[in-house]
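I have a small job for you when you get a moment. Can you supply me with one protein entry, sequence and fold together? It will help me judge whether the discrete encoding reads sensibly. Write everything out right here, beneath this request:
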Amino acid sequence: MDFAQLLDYIIIACVGGLGSILANRGIAVFNDGLRPIMPEYLEGKITRRELAATSFALSFGLVIGFGIPISIGTTIIVAHSILLAADIIGTWTPNNKWGTVLAGGIGALYSIGVMIGLQFVVDLFAMLPVDFLGSLGSIAGPVFVAFAVFPAIAVAYQHGFLKGIIAFIITFVAYLLVAKFGTFNVAGSKLSLSPEGMSLMVAMLVMIGFAMTKKGDGSGANTSLLSIFAERVARIRKNWIWLALMGGFIACASSLLIVAVDVLPHQLMNKGEYNEAAIATIARAIGFIPLVFSTAIVTGVYGMAGTTMVFGIGLLLREHPVLAFFAGALCMYLEVILLATITKGLDKFPGIRDMGEHIRSSMTKVIEIALLIGSAIACNMIAPSIGYFWLIGFYLLNRTAKKPIVDLAVGPIATILLGVLVNILHVLGMI
């Protein structure tokens, strides 16, 4: 094992270990759906067992059905594989000193295990009589192209169908223009802009532009929230050192090209388009500021990766992990310290303040549909005669289950199960 590989293992262990500690202590979680539940536990309204069960229900399907399947076959891990698991590990370990130590240890070992295990899975698939690993890469294909449409959908949710159509057309035209004219010669070198990354940036600007057209009415909603939940805001600021360390480790991991915040940056990084991946990551983070800040104020629990800006900082400082660590720590520190100031400022632009939930809803819907389409393509590649039959049946039957798999995870799980089934049928001589 060389030094570079050892450093990768150390950094990913720090990310997973510290993330689990933050969840264990109720300082921060990654799953936006879990954050509103945390105050219920912290105030004694639900038990630790109920919190753990909720965390597992919200995150496990996304870990095994989204994060890990998308990460398989690459050297870059989708952050959900580590940080959502940290939510589970942190909430399932006891709420005491030894539980915190246990959470850190399990989180670190799990994260290293993911890095090692992904390669093991790749090697295992290669030994199967029907190698379907290559087909799994098709699952994220539609996400890579379609991700840039989510701001237009968010605009439609927030401002109506007509403005959503306008945002969609602008995004579409931006994609076509960059695809056609986005290659330049700079100092004798060819520079190519990513149509996906640049159209996403344009779409985010359009979304923010529409949101800014709604002027404040003087109600001061966020200022009122800060007054009501001042104690919870103070709790977040009190834990700034832990959050800054987490921001530093995540930025460091991003600079080493170990983790990606989401599917689009993940795919861009796999293609070596790191600047475009950074642009897409930062654009995504800007859109998430209202959601992260508003839920942080109300719950007193911060996002494990903050606004996720630290991932973009890491990409901009790739191959400089030490500098990325300090820049990421500073970024997270500023997010925490300026939480109240920025939130008050959003009162002047209530449209921006309110767009957070629309961003989350639209992004989830786009990824759900894109993963389902990608899974259908992958299933048909694995078994041309039964692939579509298998996926559609699996998807619709899942909806009738008493405890259905979350929609994001249905397609990837169905595809992997089909790959295993095809190998069993091959051994039995049925195909």
About this structure: The radius of gyration is 22 Å. The mean pLDDT is 86. The first strand starts at residue 28 and ends at 29. The beta strands are 28-29, 77-78, 183-186, 189-192, 259-260, 302-303.
